[in-house]
Amino acid sequence: MIKTSNSQTLHHRRQKLANLINFPVILWSGNINPRNFPANVYPFRASSHFLYFAGLPLPNAAIRLEAGKLELFIDNPPPSSALWHGEMPNREQIAEKIGANAARPMAELESRLEGAATIALQDAATWTQQSQLLHRWILPQQPPQGIDLELAKAIISVRLTHDAAALVELRKAAAVTVKAHKAGIAATPTAKSEAEIRAAMEAVIIADNMTTSYNSIVTVHGEVLHNQQYHHLVNPGDLILADVGAETQLGWAADVTRTWPVSGKFSSTQRDIYDLVLAAHDACIAKICPGVEYEDIHLLAATVMAEGLVDLGILQGNPQDLVEIDAHALFFPHGIGHLLGLDVHDMEDLGDLAGYEEGRTRSKRFGLGYLRLHRPLRPGMLVTIEPGFYQVPAILNDAHVRSKYEKIINWQRLAEFADVRGIRIEDDVLITDNGSEVLTSELPNTAKDIEEILPQISHAAKVMG
Ligand code: GLY
Ligand code: MN
Ligand code: MN
């Protein structure tokens, strides 16, 4: 059995929740889901809310929390299981490990549901079971209501800032992620395809007995924001955009992006844009401290990007005015980042309840609507800072965009930057009592430092492989 956070940490988390609500809570862990036939299954990932309070990724389990006490519901493995899966701990052993106050078979859960709140899981098998047992619809795509909403808000307030045990895990995920990115950079001179670079990066994560916290993006087409294809060959003029993060065995995530030149040296146009994205990244991190509005961090990135694009002759106008009409979002169409924790977009299963301070809703503006976090920052929060520049054909070739921004974009000048399809620089930033700490700072991010660790290769050597 894997090592969990110590039971004092888990007890403390349960007590914090108990201080906020006065009704029982049932949290399901989720089912193991088959691929095409029952014996061949997808890797199991427990619900993050379950993991936070139970501390172990137990499949087909549930916990009941009330007044700081935990009852565990799980079935013992059938006798035949030892043949296929080896000896597994039994219910009592698991209960002791997580500091449960009682442990019962799953069938007894039904008698302990009265007045209980819950949170919907994403997998249909579990939310169907949740709905049947609780006699009301528990649907992941619908905002929670009544006591379920109260529970969601209470859990958010507990999970929004990280305790010491969580930070130990988050630092481990960050460290392995840094190693993975270094391996990706080191593999580039001899790699023929995106897939080979991805393999080098994920090999590090797997070798540390971790998993990826989301599907890796390792691509020469960084302009496709969630690109998950790895078949392209990598050529000397290309930039590799790698957005890869590790997740510890207890489920804590990292989320890091670096962009580097395949040849070992940025072209002058790539370098101009890279330095601009880095300037936005650095300005945002310099501004982070308790009390600062995350939206203002986003707007700062937008302003730095607009100023830089004006300086480069790509945009025309007053940078502040350009931001107000969302011109920055033509090239930086996503938010500056998000919460990070057990989920890579932490607690996004609850829609915007976690990301948005109560009473706030998404802006309808193109340049603000994709912002996933709109709260004042507090010590113990972990966020990403991930500005980017992309030439997205779906945006830049859109007839409406072209007519609205016709006079603002210098298209001829933009064409000179054709070798910059997508650049993003993403780090994981902890808000501290008086500023911030970048958990992923061991990974170089200046163009100069990246070029230094990336041996240059000649086109000929690359082609000859
Ligand atoms: N890796 C997903 C993101 O950066 O938000
Ligand atoms: Mn991210
Ligand atoms: Mn990312």
UniProtKB/TrEMBL annotation:
Q: Which organism is it from?
A: Anabaenopsis elenkinii CCIBt3563
Q: Where is the Aminopeptidase P N-terminal domain positioned along the sequence? A: 5-134
List GO BP terms, alphabetically.
proteolysis
Domain of life where this protein originates = Bacteria
**Pfam families to which the protein is assigned, alphabetical:** AMP_N, Peptidase_M24
Transmembrane spans:
none
The name this protein carries in UniProt is Xaa-Pro aminopeptidase
| SMART domains in the record | AMP_N
* One Gene Ontology molecular-function label: manganese ion binding
Can you cite an annotated GO cellular component? cytosol
- Enzymatic reactions: Release of any N-terminal amino acid, including proline, that is linked to proline, even from a dipeptide or tripeptide
Q: Which InterPro entries match?
A: Aminopep_P_N, Creatin/AminoP/Spt16_N, Creatinase/aminopeptidase-like, Pept_M24, Peptidase_M24B_aminopep-P_CS, X-Pro_dipept-like
Query: What UniProt keywords are attached to this protein's entry?
Result: Aminopeptidase, Hydrolase, Manganese, Metal-binding, Protease
